[in-house]
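FW: tagging you since you asked about this chain on Friday. Here's the raw sequence from the shared folder, copied in full. Didn't touch anything.
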Amino acid sequence: DERTAVDQFGKDDKYFGICTLMATLPGLPMFGHGQIEGYTEKYGMEFRRAYWDEQPDQYLIERHQREIFPLLHRRYLFAEVNDFQLYDFFTSAGFVNEDVFAYSNRHEGEQGLIIFHNKYADTSGWIRTSVASAVIDRPSGNRDLVQKNLGEGRGLRNEAGVFTIYKDQRSGLEYIRPNTTFFEQGLYLELGTYTTRVFVDFREVVDDD
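HL: got it, structure written out here
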C-alpha cells in the first residue's frame, strides 16, 4: 500500500540522496519490489503478478551499481549505533541548517562520513560538533548528555603533524586535512541542490622526514 520510490522521489539526485541515507543509517534498509529497476506500478498485498508491462531503467540500475551497491557491501560499517554520531550543520551566519543530514560511523578502524542536503537550494557551512546524545556512566548508571567535535567523533588523534586522507566515493577524489582542523574548526562544505557526499577510506598519516 506504499507509494513507489520513483513516485515519491523521482530518479535523480533527491532519490539517490535518500537512498544513500537508507543504506548508511543504523538499522535494516528495505528496498521495494522494482525500486532499483525504476518500476512505477503500485503493488497490493493481494497481487499475484504485475499488471503493467514495465521495462527496467538501465540508467537507474547502473547508477545504483555505482553509488548504492558499494555502500551495501559496507553495511557492517553503518549498521551499528555504538559509534554513530549525528552532526549539526552550521551556516556562515551561525544558524543550524535543518535540511542537511550529516553523520559518521565507525567499525574496527574503518570510518564513514555522510552528508546529504535535502533541499532544492544551495548552502554552505561547517560540521563541527555532534548533536548531544545520552551516555551511561557505568559506575553510577547515570545518563549524561555528551557532545563530540568532528575529530573526537571519528576517533582521530589530535596531534600536530598527523593528517587524515579520505576519499569521496561519488567523485573518486581524495582529500588530505590536518587532524587538528577537525578538532578546532570542523569541516567546511559547499552543497548544491540534493548534493550527497560519501566520505570513506579514512587513514591517518604522519609528517616525518
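FW: Residues 128 and 134 are 19 Å apart (CA to CA).
HL: agreed, and DSSP finds six helices and ten strands in the chain.
FW: great, closing this out.
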